[in-house]
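User: Structure please.
Assistant: Input sequence and predicted structure:
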Amino acid sequence: MINNGFVLTAAEMLAAENRLIDEGTTVEALMERAGQGAAQQIWRVSCDMPTLVLCGPGNNGGDGYVIAE
């Protein structure tokens, strides 16, 4: 995530996610947003070229499943 032109550290990203969760945003909603944002960027870069999405276990896998949709 970019904040005022700077890339967030892992600790800053975790803090930002936790703030959203504390305010009532679900983890599933965050995964949906992350996956959709990544999918849009992949589409912009690759146009109509086939894209392989590999998903492992854990939260990053959840984002990957959204990308694949």
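The chain has a mean pLDDT of 87.
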